[in-house]
Amino acid sequence: MSYHVLKIAKIAAIYAGTIMGAGFASGQELTQFFVVYGSMGLVGLLFTTILFAWLGITILKISHTIKATSYHQLLYYACGKRIGTVLDCIITLSLFGVLTVMLAGNGTLFRDTLHLPYGLGIGTIALSLLLTTLWGINGIATANLIITPLLAAITSFVAMYSLSYHDWNFTILHISSAAINISTSHWLLSSLLYLSYNLVMSATLLVPLGARTPEPSIRIIGSIIGSLLLLLLAGLIILVVMIHYPLSPEYEIPMLHIAGSQHFVHHAAYIFTFAAAMYTTGLACLYGCTTKLTAVTSLSKTAALLIVITFSVLFSYIGFTSLVSIVFTLFGYVTLWFTLRLLYLSFFPK
Questions:
Q1: Cα(192)–Cα(47) distance, rounded to whole angstroms?
Q2: Which PANTHER family match (predicted)?
Q3: Which of 68, 155, 216, 220 has a CA between 20 and 30 Å from the CA of residue 227?
């Protein structure tokens, strides 16, 4: 693999892999932010994808221009010192919340699917995240480069298999959200919230990559490929959940239930997919929280990692579905200003 292709693949894999977390792969997150709006949810997904590509390029470009080493520098650059400081603190807490969601998701997987202790699931992923993050950004990039293609392949197969044996037509787009507590009253706001919190999570890893990537073509192609991969996978998952609606939202992990109704091999493969998706997003959140903690204290990286992991384990006992609906929506509102500022800077750079 040539240097340019490898660099493009790393950016695309990190961008897509970070967003493909527990909520995404389970179908729960996409249900709450897109499926409940029916056909307009699909319009929202397309709108979100375009902005993912555009703003991903912007993040990488600005990061290289200012030689940023962490997302905090990008945040201050985009929002100013005063607002940036406030957002920085809130975003760090939000990243911690999403990390907690990933741990809770793995605990749910172990308890409800593998019939193993909830705490064992949390401990397994916590240890994996800890060991990988100790390797730094290169270790995280390598993990995403390996795992993301596998996630894409398995998710696509399970979704397309489901679509192949169901009779479906455009009536599936007429969704009634009465049975679900929707996050917002409008599909556009929901799409922007989804975009906003995922941009910040991605920025924790895209910023240091952007600083090390001087070639504009690599930054542009990597961001576009990562966004298109997300569009493909999210679109497939949304269509499958719509076909199984309104039963699908009743399960904490709708896609895992759907895979289990197909074949035991598909079920086993999707168990891996769900766990791996939580792992890739957890890496970005843990890296972001640790970077912030080491920046404001005299703690070593290892000590900061242990503190963040310990507290996330404790809070993960709140539960997966409750955390998805609460943490992700609040995270989206908090980071919306950052998204709007990035959009402004993409057209009117400093």
A1: 9
A2: CONSERVED MEMBRANE PROTEIN, MEMBRANE PROTEIN
A3: 68
pLDDT tens digit sequence for 259-316:
888 888 988 988 888 888 889 889 988 998 998 899 888 889 899 999 999 999 988 8
- The identity of residue 223, as a single letter, is S
Alpha carbon separation from 179 to 3, 26, 239, 245 (Å, rounded): 50, 18, 18, 10
Q: Which two tokens stand for residue 97?
A: 């919340």
Q: 13 lies in a domain?
A: yes
Neighbour tally for 23: CB within 10 Å: 31
Is residue 170 one of the residues assigned to a domain?
A: yes
Compute the 3-state secondary structure of the chain and give helix, strand, coil in percent, each to the nearest 5.
Answer: 85, 0, 15
How many structural domains does the chain have?
1
**CATH (domain of 47):** 1.10.4160.10
User: Using CA atoms, how far apart are residues 160 and 235, in angstroms rounded to an integer?
Assistant: 11
Residue 159: inside a domain: yes
Q: Which tokens belong to 327?
A: 């943490």
Amino acid at 55: L
The SS3 assignment for 350 reads coil
Query: Please, what sign has the CA dihedral across residues 10, 108, 197, 74?
Result: negative
> What's the token pair of residue 102?
């990933």
Contact at 8 Å (CB) between 30 and 187?
A: no
Q: Residue 8 sits in which domain range?
A: 3-345
Q: Which residues 6+ apart lie within 8 Å of 63 measured at CB?
A: 74, 206, 207, 208, 209, 210, 211
- DSSP 8-state symbol, 194: H
**Residue 350: which of 68, 79, 54, 56 has the closest Cα?**
79
- pLDDT confidence of residue 179: 45
CA 239 to chain centre: 19
